[in-house]
Amino acid sequence: MDLHGFLKALARRWPTVAICLVLATGAALAATYLSVPVYEARTQLFVATRSSDDSAQLNQGQSFSQARVQSYAAIVATRQITAPVVKKLRLRTTPEELASRITASAPLNTVLIDIAVRDTAPKRAARIANAVAERFSAVVERLETPTHNSSRTHSKKGRAGDGSATSPVSLGVTQEAVAPAHPVLPRPLLNLSVGLFGGLLLGAAAVALRETLDTTLKTSEALSEFTSLPGLGTIPYDRNAPRQPLVSADGHSKRAEAFRKLRTNLQFSQVDNPPRIILVTSSVPGEGKTNTAANLALSLAEVGISTCLVDGDLRRPCVASVFGLVQDAGLTSVLIGQVSIDDVMQQVEGRLSVLASGPVPPNPTELLASARMEEVLRELADTYEVVIVDTAPLLPVADTVGLASLAQGSLLVVRAARTSRDQVHTAAASLERVGARVLGTVFSMAPVPKGDRYGTYGRYGELPAPRASASEEEAGETASAADTSGAGQK
What we know:
The chain is an alpha/beta fold. It has three domains: about 5-35 and about 185-210, no CATH class; about 40-145 and about 165-175, EIF_2_alpha (Alpha-Beta Plaits); about 215-455, P-loop containing nucleotide triphosphate hydrolases (Rossmann fold). It is about 45% helix and about 15% strand. The protein has an eight-stranded mixed sheet, sandwiched between helices. Strands 2-3-1-6 form a four-stranded antiparallel sheet. The protein starts with a helix and ends with a helix. About 35% of the residues are buried.
């Protein structure tokens, strides 16, 4: 999936990104307000050398302090510092836990040591920092004090003298720790930024995962590329289709224009050898094959082509209910020899005739693949210019496979973002195995692009009527009221 495809997937699955963003942001805010505030107290020490006023010795002592100060910072959080502090302040913690809350650093080219202590109580953090600084100073001076073996010497007067040693360095506090006014943790802005960024990453990852696992076809271009079959039409999704499956009542809607385009593409795609008997099928139920077959038949009859629509789905027939016709007698009645075709053929409107399925038989597969079915189709083809046969789905049952070899062409209906690639591949392969002629695909229930205002036009080249001004509307309402009152008086 390239970048353009990924961006389109993000736009298509924006609810997933929005949910992840809300969840991550909510988690960050919850973690911020549920966290215990942590305060940080800081103190600073200055390392000096005990030397004379000689400038050379002062420079030497400065260099000595800078060389040792990094080592001093490394022992601030050791046990010999923390254990006495815990005991002195009577802290309810261990020296190791206290050490984890102490940090020390020595800026380069300086003789300063910065000590920071974190605690949930600001005053206690300050007390611990000052105690650590005090204990640290004592430990460093003790470590730097040279040890000498005491030797007794006799002076000229015969009196003995003991040698003593002092530390060459001394540590002084340049800044005592005070109770901080504001906590250093949590950080609301940082947590919110992390939540927003993490939510976006989580949403993008979820979309990428869904796109990887989702094997359905999202566009008609992808369908044509996958099947190598011509895409003859794309039928937009219409939420009113279940209540109003036929487009004849709304002849200038996007859906009606899509079926007219399907009719035109079908006619021009087979100019040299136009099929007379066309099967309309799908991979699985619920892809809109019956809706496609019925409206394609209506569209053909609309331009004066004598058309017959046959309900060849003998397991779940729907054509009769779509047109409001009689279901009791139809194709199965003809196949078993009870009636003739003319006896059960029902006229809908114009040049469209409908042959309902009739009673549901116990052996639909055998009936549809029989020689009698072939005779019925030939008889219909001799009477009508085009015969459209609505059939059962290919994958659940074998009814359509036997019937496809009797037709002159087939249309494969694929539902957008619902039918998987494996289902489409298996359905197309089953038609090819029986030598069926697949005319192309119909991409049904496709999402309508946002900002498409094609539906605001009535006919080609016809602009919508201009909106009346406010004064004209008021005048029209007054005239309408007068006409209504006059009619009421009559």
